[in-house]
From TrEMBL, chain A:
Residues at the active site: Y304, H312, K359
Protein name, UniProt field: tRNA-splicing endonuclease subunit Sen2
Family: Belongs to the tRNA-intron endonuclease family.
Gene3D superfamilies, per the entry: 3.40.1350.10
Residue numbers spanned by region Disordered: 1-20, 173-202
From TrEMBL, chain B:
Transmembrane segments: none
Originating species: Hypholoma sublateritium (strain FD-334 SS-4)
Keywords from the named record: tRNA processing
Gene3D superfamilies xrefs: 3.40.1350.10
Taxonomic lineage from the root: Eukaryota, Fungi, Dikarya, Basidiomycota, Agaricomycotina
Family listed: Belongs to the SEN15 family.
The protein, known as: tRNA-splicing endonuclease subunit Sen15 domain-containing protein
Molecular-function GO terms, alphabetical: nucleic acid binding
GO cellular component terms, A-Z: nucleus
Domain tRNA-splicing endonuclease subunit Sen15: 26-133
UniProt xrefs under Pfam families: Sen15
UniProtKB/TrEMBL annotation, chain C:
Endpoints of the signal sequence: none
Domain of life of the native organism: Eukaryota
Keywords noted in UniProt: tRNA processing
Ranges of compositional bias, category Low complexity: 368-389
GO biological process, one term: tRNA-type intron splice site recognition and cleavage
Comp. bias regions, Acidic residues: 20-35
Location of the region described as Disordered in the Swiss-Prot/TrEMBL record: 1-66, 360-389
Cross-referenced InterPro entries: tRNA_splic_suSen54, tRNA_splic_suSen54_N
Pfam families per the UniProt record, alphabetical: tRNA_int_end_N2
Protein name stated in the entry: tRNA-splicing endonuclease subunit Sen54 N-terminal domain-containing protein
TrEMBL record, chain D:
InterPro entries reported for this sequence: tRNA_endonuc-like_dom_sf, tRNA_intron_Endo_cat-like_sf, tRNA_intron_Endonuc_cat-like, TSEN34, TSEN34_N
Residue span, TSEN34 N-terminal domain: 8-77
GO MF annotation: an example: nucleic acid binding
Record-linked Gene3D superfamilies: 3.40.1350.10
Protein name: tRNA-splicing endonuclease subunit Sen34
Biased amino acid composition, Polar residues: 94-119
């Protein structure tokens, strides 16, 4: 499986022209926002006549991907490389379980083996950048210490005060420091060499151990709305029915009850995290956003305009469930996260983390239907989703000094 | 899952601690296949109801410990201290007699935090007040 | 480079510090507290080399620091303490006077000088004893507690505390109107009066120092001028009625058709219809999760809330007339961060309910096309016009519509005035209704801006 | 901290502890290593928020700590203002007068030096001018007050309609008016608005000073720490302080405190510290992510401070990004 595509964010790589080429390629590769394709027939007279009548001969092409429900990781695994490719490229569904985005583990290993592999994966670029950054910090700290030592000496001998500097000609800055002569780069290379040597010695053939992992929300979105995903049961004996999936995905999110209740409906509840997350996921997907995990920025989701290969995410979502009836919260067996208002310290923290990376924090409030209003029965079908509602509150720091005119 | 190459190593822990099996599985695979630690072993942390991972970064000698947890769990300070207390450089799985003495517990561990989309992040927890590295 | 070791004096430099304070607040409040270089405030003669702002060291060397470190620290501290020792002095020709009346929580301004009174204080009729012993009503200028403290602490007002002592007969005390007050006494006695907390005072003073005009949102007495019909918002009664009518009509319609919506198969694309076979229609047909602030179900809410708008805030550039204040630029809630968590959804909704809609952010550069094909109004679209709310199918989306958008395909909701569409990201990030919350944790103030998001109005596809 | 130094009076009003005397602020900072927060407008630098002045407001943890170690006492500030006696006020007034006179003398000599012509002004002329100005002042003050009222509903016809111009030049003021018969020119002089009350003769805290938290609590002026979470904060604060750290407010950095290796005037903080009020208080992995993440950008580690109320003990765990993954 060679899913490797050039990394847009690799710094220092290429100028504007290269970027343009890359964007062109991306526009081609990621042309479709959903796995379904609309295939236009070749232009014909019949087509144009039908067009006048509002009818068309456009064919809907369904890729019919396949995945396996894995109860342990509470996810759906797509192991067929072709399917993984389709789901990633058409709407950025899923994530390689050993990669930061698309499955690239095998490509990385192959790259390491083929010594001198020029094209770095994003993971490798990141590792190198981190090593350089570390070395820069060490260099700078050493330079600062040297200048401080000198200042101390002058103060002791001449009584002059030179304020200890943290910047200056003798101290490298992020703008001027170059990694070329650094030991870190060499070290990183050495580590890579070693990585290259290792597998070569034992000659073990590379087997791809990676899969594309879909969250339950992603899987349900694909199979329920678009009917383009078949989910097999964990033993891979049969394709699960929609009703089976609906109940299974809900119970997967609940703490296992032992022994299992005789009637699976008994476990259904409105504050099931699957339902809350699904409502949010579906809402933003239906508006055309690409929705990905936000764990690295301590939020629930990131919203991408077209997809992670095109732009950075500018919006970071925190899902805040709100019980319509606080009594339901009291009696619930689930301790839902973010269901009570944050402390200011926590709000500041997540807001600061996100504004550091130019993301705007969005609190997504999802109301949980009151049991006194809506009968539990509606949980037996997705019709219950019509009783949840989603709304956003945007949080930003307000800086009075900047708002004066 | 059963056909995954990690399954034979992990299955006792998956069976013993079903609620933490997801994060152990993800963390173990990431450490073995993506981070490529060597001499990797799974240790039993009964007080935290999960398996933990011991190993070394390639080309280094220091033994490192990773304790997996999932984003949806709720931990507490005592839980983290227990994790330290139960991790020992030597044969950790043998009976722990004096779990409370921190003498032999490692100075730091990595908390491997997993989410359902198979994302994983690592944070280093150190005992005591350890000032930031430069 | 030579450190003269001159002892810093308490005199202030005639440098433009007053006007041009380093007010890069972003960096500033990112800056840790106390990380200031007070030596900057020293007069030039006493100024040794001045390290750049924020140039602090990582840590003191063991044993509390090296000789040099200790020396530099001492110098910084001395500069700080000397600055703090500066007294509040004012020319006898510029000072104003006031008398604090604890019984009514007001300070009566007896001598008003300076520009402050163009936007501070308000007039109130009070009965006064005339010389003939009869009482009559007389208007006088009064300050709220925060106004008085602020003017006293910045050294503009000398305040007396009303006293029953008879001074008139005493030589040298003929004009004394009470007992003289210190800044300390003003803090001590005036905070806690008329709903003023230390947190609210700190926020008030912070904004005043930046030049904002700050007034109370809820008038503390009937003489206090407030902006006209501030708490209107929402929709006009007529609009309300039309909306209700429309909604009930639609729901009848929907009940007739609704069974057709199959929750097991929410999206069904016709194999024949042309407009179905586009990603746009596909996405639209998936928009059935109720969303938006108008759909908020009743949340059974609890007790009292600290989330009440307390201050109206006007930018320094906003023309302000004290007797007839204009609508404020911002409205502000002040809470004690140690006792109040961030607002709940219900608290936010209650605030949004009484707030006006903010205009759409204007695009940075691009001017709207001079002649639009459609008969769009010539003014940039603001959300305040109810007409637009009514006419725009996107803005006025009923719950019904959100749930069953496929009903509406006959009239595909074309985005209104596409040429004018501001950058959706700007609209998304700015939000519709805005409230500012100042959370004060033991004198550390964080300002946050909460606004109503309207993602449904700005789909990406 | 020798025993012969008097405890610092912390002026408490509305359950907030203020320090108004700069010497006390200096002692608290230099000797006791506590910073508090300066919160007042600096006179003459009143249009900025970067440098602020007295009062210093102490965190409740800091105040409790100072009282605990016997370095400070709590003063019920509103109760310390006694009704001044007439002689006290006379003395106060005389002091003001003396200051005015001193300035006047100083200014007159200066003016005299500048005016080489040295045209002397007779005392009589001076007195007459003074009277004129007195009348003018009264009128001007009334006028200014009226103008400042600015268009109050004109139902009350006492005053003429207001004019926008407010800066009425006025030459005198109540304190100066008492300078009857003094050798004073009409040159402006400087009035001091005192910050601290300790110099007032009628400020007497002897009957409203409390040496312990408990006694202050009984008096109803102070109640920190009252809850478990407040006890935890106090316990953690004190423990870090004992280890030599300086603390600042940490709410903007995701904790209760910022922890500095030395005086924040000179050193960067090493940690943002968050207080966990009990070993079993819940901690979400997302908090570790956020704290660790925030630290990497700000060169700080995060400190989890676990308070054990039974043992009255703190344990610490330091959080940093792992550097991989």
């Amino acid at each position: 499986m060679s899913l490797i595509t050039p990394n847009t964010r690799a710094r220092g790589g290429g100028g504007a022209q290269k970027g343009g080429v890359r964007r062109y390629e991306h526009n081609k590769i990621y042309a479709h926002p959903l796995p379904l394709l609309f295939v236009e027939p070749p232009p014909s007279r019949i087509g144009s006549v039908l067009g006048l009548l509002g009818l068309s001969l456009t064919r809907i092409e369904n890729p019919h991907c396949e995945g396996v429900f894995d109860p342990t990781t509470r996810s759906v695994w797509v192991t067929r490389p072709d399917d993984a490719l389709i789901l990633w490229r058409r709407g950025f569904f899923g994530k390689g379980d050993l990669s930061r985005s698309e499955p690239s583990w095998l490509a990385r290993q192959t790259n390491i083996r083929a010594s001198g592999g020029k094209q770095l994966t994003s993971e490798e670029v990141t590792a190198r950048r981190r090593a350089e950054r570390r070395q820069f910090k060490l260099d700078r700290a050493a330079a600062i210490a040297a200048v401080a030592e000198e200042a101390e000496e002058i103060f002791a001998t001449e009584g002059r005060v030179i304020a200890p500097a943290l910047s200056g000609p003798a101290i490298p800055s992020a703008a001027t420091w170059r990694p070329s002569q650094s030991a870190a780069a060499a070290e990183a290379e050495a580590a890579e060499d070693e990585g290259r040597d290792g597998p070569l010695e034992d000659e073990a053939p590379l087997v791809d151990v990676e899969h594309l992992q879909l969250t339950l929300q992603e899987a349900f979105f694909l199979l329920w709305n678009l009917d383009c995903l078949t989910v097999l049961d964990p033993q891979q004996t049969h394709a699960m029915s929609l009703k089976e999936i609906w109940l299974t995905f809900q119970s997967a999110e609940l703490p296992p009850t032992i022994p299992a209740p005789p009637n699976p409906f008994d476990t259904l509840q409105f504050d099931n995290p699957f339902l809350i997350n699904y409502a949010v996921y579906h809402h933003y997907r239906s508006l055309g956003w690409v929705v990905k995990s936000g764990i690295k920025f301590c939020v629930d989701y990131l919203l991408y305009k077209r997809g992670p290969v095109f732009t950075h995410a500018e919006l970071a979502l925190v899902v805040c469930p709100v019980y319509e009836d606080p009594a339901d919260q009291q009696s619930s067996s689930i301790a839902l996260q973010n269901a009570t208002p944050f402390t200011w310290s926590w709000l500041s923290t997540i807001n600061r983390v996100n504004s550091q990376v130019q993301k705007t924090l969005i609190l997504v409030y999802v109301t949980i239907p009151a049991r006194s209003r809506v009968p539990l029965d509606v949980l037996r079908s997705p019709a219950c989703l019509g009783h949840y509602s989603v709304r956003e509150v945007i949080v930003r720091r307000f800086i009075p000094a900047r708002m004066r005119d | 899952m059963e056909s995954h190459p990690s399954f034979p190593v992990l299955s006792p822990f998956i069976a013993k601690y079903p609620r933490s099996s997801s994060s152990l599985f993800q963390a173990y695979n990431d450490i073995v296949y993506a981070q490529q630690w060597v001499d990797v072993e799974v240790l039993d942390l009964p007080s935290c109801s999960r398996g933990a991972i011991k190993g070394k970064k390639r080309g280094t000698e220091e033994t490192l410990f990773a304790v997996p947890c999932s984003l949806s769990e709720t931990l507490n300070f005592a839980w983290l201290q227990d994790a330290f207390a139960q991790l020992r450089p030597q044969n950790v799985t043998e009976t722990i007699t004096d779990a409370k003495t921190t003498r032999s517990s490692p100075p730091s561990l990595y908390l491997a935090i997993t989410s359902q989309d198979a994302s994983i992040v690592y944070y280093k927890l150190s005992q005591g007040i350890v000032k930031p590295s430069v | 480079m030579d450190d003269s070791l001159e002892k810093p004096s308490s005199l202030f430099p005639k440098t433009p510090l007053t006007d041009e304070a380093p007010e890069d607040d972003e960096q500033l409040s990112d800056e840790e507290d106390g990380g200031l270089d007070w030596t900057k405030l020293l007069p030039p003669s006493a100024r040794p080399i001045i390290p750049r702002r924020g140039e602090k060291e990582f840590e003191p060397r063991s044993g509390g620091g090296t000789n040099l470190q200790l020396h530099v620290l001492d110098r910084s501290r001395l500069a700080m303490f000397d600055t703090l020792r500066a007294t509040r002095t004012i020319s006898s020709k510029a000072v104003s006077y006031a008398v604090w009346h604890p019984d009514i929580s007001r300070s009566h301004v007896t001598v008003a000088r300076g520009i402050h009174f163009s936007n501070m204080g308000h007039s109130a009729p009070r009965s006064v004893q005339g010389e003939d012993g009869t009482s009559k009503m007389q208007r006088r200028l009064e300050l709220l507690p925060e106004e008085a403290i602020y003017l006293i602490e910045r050294g503009s007002v000398f305040c007396w505390k009303k006293s029953d002592l008879e001074f008139g007969e005493l030589p040298g005390l003929s004009d004394v109107s009470g007992t003289p007050m210190t800044v300390q006494q003003a803090f001590s006695e005036m905070i806690g009066k008329e709903d003023l907390t230390i947190e609210k005072f700190q926020v008030y003073a912070y904004l005043k120092r930046l030049g904002y005009v700050v007034t109370r949102t809820d008038p503390p007495d009937s003489y206090y001028p407030i902006p006209p019909n501030l708490s209107v918002s929402k929709t006009t009664p007529i609009m309300q009625r039309i909306k209700t009518l429309f909604a009930s009509w639609m729901s009848t319609l929907v009940q007739a058709v609704a069974p057709a919506f199959n929750w097991w198969k929410p999206v069904s694309l016709s194999h024949w219809l042309h407009h179905d076979k586009k990603y746009l229609s596909l996405f639209q047909s998936m928009r059935f999760i109720p969303s938006g602030h108008s759909t908020l179900p009743t949340i059974q809410s609890n007790v009292t809330t600290p989330y009440r708008i307390f201050y109206n805030v006007y930018k320094p550039s906003t023309p302000f007339k004290k007797s007839a204040p204009p609508p404020p630029d911002f409205q502000l809630v002040v809470v004690n961060a140690r006792t109040a968590p961030m607002p709940s959804l219900q608290e936010l909704s209650d605030l949004f309910d009484i707030l006006p809609e903010a205009p759409l952010p204007t695009p940075r550069q691009r001017r709207p096309p001079t002649c639009a094909a459609n008969n769009a109004p010539a003014t940039p679209p603001t959300r305040e016009t109810p007409a637009r709310i009514a006419s725009s199918p996107l803005a006025e989306k009923s719950l019904v519509r959100r749930m069953f958008p496929w009903l509406f395909f006959a009239t595909p909701p074309a985005p209104p005035m596409p040429a004018r569409r501001p950058n959706p990201f700007m609209a998304l990030k700015s939000g519709k209704k805005i409230v500012i919350v100042a959370a004060v944790d033991s004198s550390n103030t964080s300002f946050f801006r909460f606004s109503q998001g309207e993602f449904t109005e700005w789909p990406m596809v | 901290m020798s025993s012969d130094t008097l405890p610092i009076p912390l002026r408490v009003s509305n359950k907030t502890a203020y320090v108004w005397d700069v010497d006390d602020i200096a002692t608290i900072r230099s000797q006791h290593r506590l910073c508090g927060v300066l919160t007042g407008t600096l006179p003459h630098l009143s249009q900025q928020n970067v440098f602020l002045g007295v009062p210093l407001i102490l965190f409740p943890e800091e105040a409790a700590l100072l009282v605990d170690i016997g370095a400070a006492v709590l003063v019920d500030d509103p109760a310390a203002y006694k009704q001044p006696t007439v002689p006290q006020l006379e003395r106060w007034s005389a002091e003001q007068q003396e200051s005015v006179n001193t300035q006047a003398t100083y200014n007159e000599t200066k003016v005299a030096k500048e005016n080489q012509s040295g045209r002397a002004i007779s005392e009589e002329a001076l007195r007459k001018r003074k009277e004129r100005e007195e009348r003018k002042r009264t009128q001007a003050a009334a006028k200014a007050a009226a103008e400042a009222l600015e268009g109050g509903t004109s139902a009350d016809a006492l005053f003429a309609p207001t004019e926008p111009q407010l800066q009425t030049p006025s030459v005198s003021d109540p304190t100066s008016s008492s300078a009857e018969g003094s050798k004073k020119s009409n040159l402006p002089y400087t009035i001091v608005i005192p910050a601290s009350s300790s110099s007032l003769e009628w400020y007497d805290a002897s009957d409203c000073t409390y040496a312990t938290i408990e006694s202050a609590r009984k008096a109803g002026i102070w109640d920190y720490p009252a809850t478990l979470s407040e006890r935890a904060r106090c316990g953690v604060f004190k423990d870090l302080w004992k280890q030599g750290y300086f603390m600042g407010g940490g709410i903007k950095f995701g904790g209760e405190y910022l922890v500095y290796p030395g005086d924040p005037l000179r050193y960067h903080s090493h940690f943002a510290a968050s207080v966990l009020e009990s070993p079993l208080a819940s901690l979400h992995p997302m908090e570790i992510v956020a704290h660790g993440r925030l630290g990497t950008a700000t060169k700080k580690a995060h400190l989890l401070c676990g308070w054990d109320d039974d043992k009255q003990e703190v344990s610490y765990l330091s959080v940093e990004w792992a550097g991989f993954g």
